[in-house]
Amino acid sequence: MTPARVKIIFNDDGSDTYTLGEKTVDLDNILTTVSDVEGALRSKGYETARVPLRRREDLERFTKEIRDPEEVIFNLCEGAFNRSSLEMHVAALLELHGARFTGSGPLTLGLALDKGLTKDILSRRGVPTPGYAVMTEASGKTGEIEFPLIVKPLREDASIGIDSGAVVESPSELKERVEHIISTYAQPAIVEEYVDGREFNIAVMGNGKSRRALPPSEILFVDFPEGKPKICCYEAKWVEESPFYRKTVPSCPAEIPEKLKGELQAVALKAYGMMGCRDYARVDMRLGKDGKAKVLEVNPNPDISSDAGFARAAKAAGLDYPDLIAAIVDAAVSRYTPQAGTVSART
Ligand SMILES: Nc1ncnc2c1ncn2[C@@H]1O[C@H](COP(=O)(O)OP(=O)(O)O)[C@@H](O)[C@H]1O
Ligand SMILES: [Mg+2]
Q: Hey, whose CA ends up nearest to atom 10 of ligand 1?
C-alpha cells in the first residue's frame, strides 16, 4: 500500500562549506538531493513535504512534524546543527517517537562514523579489511601492520584530512602525519595498511532475504600526477583548481570478470549485514596484492542524489532513479510491517 505522504527530513545547516587552509570549499549541497528525492517520489504518485532541521530552537517544531504514524519519513539528515556526530541522534529521535523512517538506525550510523570501531566489527566478524591501528598519540604503537600505511582522521568523511601526504613509508613520516592529524582535527588518527590495488564502491539495498548488491562501480585514476598515491584524496573530490580534481572517474558497471564481481558483492553484503545496515548503504573497497577485496569503509547514509554513484549502480541494475527511491521507501515500510516467523520486524 502506498503511504499517504512521505516527509523528507534533512539538516539544513546553511551554506554547506568546509574550510581548507585559507580556502572555503563548497561541499555538495543537501538541497540537491532533497529535490531529486522529492521529484522521484512525486513521479511515483507520493505526496511529499520537506521538513528541514536548522537550529536547536527548531527542534520542537521538527519533533512535532515527525510524529504522524501514518506518514513515512525519508531521512536525509547527515548530522544536525553543523555536527555530523549528531547524525545518529536524529535517527534515535525518530525511533523514540515511533516514526517509520528510511535508512539505518542510530547504532549503525554512530558506528560507521568511527572508522576504528567499524573495522573492529568487520575484522572480528570475518569481513576482510586492511590491518589497522588507532593512535591517540604520535608516539603510539602500530603493532604488526606493515608500511606503506595511510593515515586518516578517525571520525571524518568526504576525504577530509586525506591528501598525498597521507600515505607514509617510514616510522618518522608516520609520527609526523599522526601529529598533524591529531593537532589539525582534534581527534585520533586511524593508521591502515595502504592497499595499492583497484578501488570499487558497491551499493547494497534491501533487508533480510531481499538484500541485494548492485553492480560494482570502479573508481578509475585517470592521468593521475606521476609519483602520487592513487587515492580519492580531498582535492580530487572537492578542489576544482587541483591537479587531482576530476581524475578519479567512476565507471559503472565495472569491467571485471564475473568471479570478481561475485566476490565484491558477497563481501559488500556481509559488511552490510555485520554493521546492521538497513534499506541501503554503500561499501568501499580495494583489491589487495593477493587479488582479494578489502573493505575500507561502510557508508550507511551514502549520497543518493540522482547523479551520485548509488543512482548509477541502480541504473546499471535496471532501476531508474524513481524506482530506486521508491524501492528504498518500500524496504523501510516493510520493516515496520510485522511478519510471522521473523526475529525482528525492524532490521
Ligand atoms: N587502506 C587504504 N588503502 C588505500 N587507499 C585508501 C585506504 N584507505 C583510504 N584510502 C583512499 O582514501 C579514500 C578515502 O578514504 P575512506 O576511508 O573511504 O574515507 P572517507 O570517509 O573520507 O571517504 C578512499 O576512497 C581511497 O582512495
Ligand atoms: Mg569513502
A: 231
Any atom of ligand 1 within 6 Å of the Cβ of 195: yes
Pocket test for ligand 1, best of 119, 122, 159, 290 (most atoms within 8 A of CB): 159
13 CB under 6 A from ligand 1?
no
116 CB contacts (<8 Å, ≥6 apart)?
Answer: 132, 134, 154, 188, 190
Q: Where are the beta strands (DSSP E) in 78-122?
A: 100-101
Residue 329 grid coordinates: 521507501
- Check pocket membership of 114 for ligand 1, CB cut-off 6 A: no
Class of domain 199-335: alpha beta
Which of the following CATH numbers is that of domain 130-193: 2.40.110.10, 3.30.1490.20, 3.50.50.60, 1.10.340.30? 3.30.1490.20
- What is the whole-number distance in angstroms between the Cα of residue 245 and the centre of ligand 2? 16
**Closest residue CA from atom 9 of ligand 1:** 296
Task: Give the model confidence (pLDDT) of 189-226 as tens digits.
Answer: 999 999 999 999 999 999 999 999 999 999 999 988 88
Q: pLDDT tens digits for 247-286?
A: 999 999 999 999 999 999 999 999 999 999 999 999 999 9
- What are the structural domain ranges in the chain? 5-102, 130-193, 199-335
The closest alpha carbon to 249, from 237, 239, 238, 258, belongs to 237
Alpha-carbon distance 281 to 302, whole Å?
A: 6
> Which residues are CB-contacts of 59 (< 8 A; sequence separation ≥ 6)?
53
